[in-house]
Amino acid sequence: MEPEHHVTLDDPTDSPQDTPDASGKRRRAAGRQRVCLRGEVVVPNLVVADRMFARMRGLLGRSGLEQGEGLWILPCPSIHMFFMRFALDIVFLDTDLQVVRVHEDVRPWKMARGGKHAHSVLELRTGTIAFYNLRVGDRLSIDPA
Fold first, then answer.
1. Nearest-CA neighbor of 32 among 45, 41, 42, 20?
2. Domain 19-144: which CATH class?
3. Which residues contact 67 (CB under 8 A, 6 or more apart)?
4. Which is the most buried residue in 28, 31, 104, 116, by most CB within 10 A?
5. Phi, psi of 144 (to 5 degrees)
6. Which string of DSSP letters, residue by residue, matches 81-123?
7. Which pLDDT score, from 0 to 100, does residue 54 have?
């Protein structure tokens, strides 16, 4: 069973009503999320980008991520850093939120791929992977903040 994903309403084009996703499942609008690893909060302020416009926009136009802030893009098996202004730590997850690949300190104008099992990606502030010792095989949880 796939985890239920929630959407934040930071984008004025997002509707507060339930909407079906590509698989036909209903998604509910919800507040911010947080990422936990073995019960420890890794990212207390996670924004979810699971709609077309939010996924395309990503973090473009931002000058950086604040401490404890991140972006979860789904579905997303690879990312590019074209036109970005800052580096990121990148964590690719499968559908069970298990880490399948990590890329530390990905600089602007680079690309990162998650591999054949990657379903979504966490874009995190540089240094987050090392600080929390995130590794392939770790299982994360994404919960309401």
1. 45
2. mainly beta
3. 125
4. 104
5. -60, 140
6. -TT-SS-EEEEEE-TT-BEEEEEEEEPTT-EEE--TT--EEEE
7. 80
pLDDT average, residue stretch 131-140: 97
Which residues contact residue 49 at a Cβ distance below 8 angstroms, ignoring those fewer than 6 apart? Answer: 55, 57, 58, 71, 72, 73, 74
Residue with tokens 């074209």: 82
Domain ranges in the chain are: 19-144
**Per-residue pLDDT averaged across 125-145, rounded?**
94
Average pLDDT of span 51-58? 81
- Region of residue 123 (left: phi > 0; alpha: psi -120 to 50; beta: else): beta
Helices (H), the chain: 52-57, 128-132
As given in the structure block, the two tokens for residue 100 are 């399948």
Q: How far apart are CA 121 and CA 26, in angstroms?
A: 21
Q: Residues 6 or more apart from 29 whose CB is under 8 A from it?
A: 6, 7, 8, 9, 14, 15, 16, 17, 18
**Could you count the other beta carbons within 10 Å of the beta carbon of residue 76?**
21
pTM of the model: 0.77
Which is it for strands 40-49 and 69-73: parallel, antiparallel or unpaired?
Answer: parallel
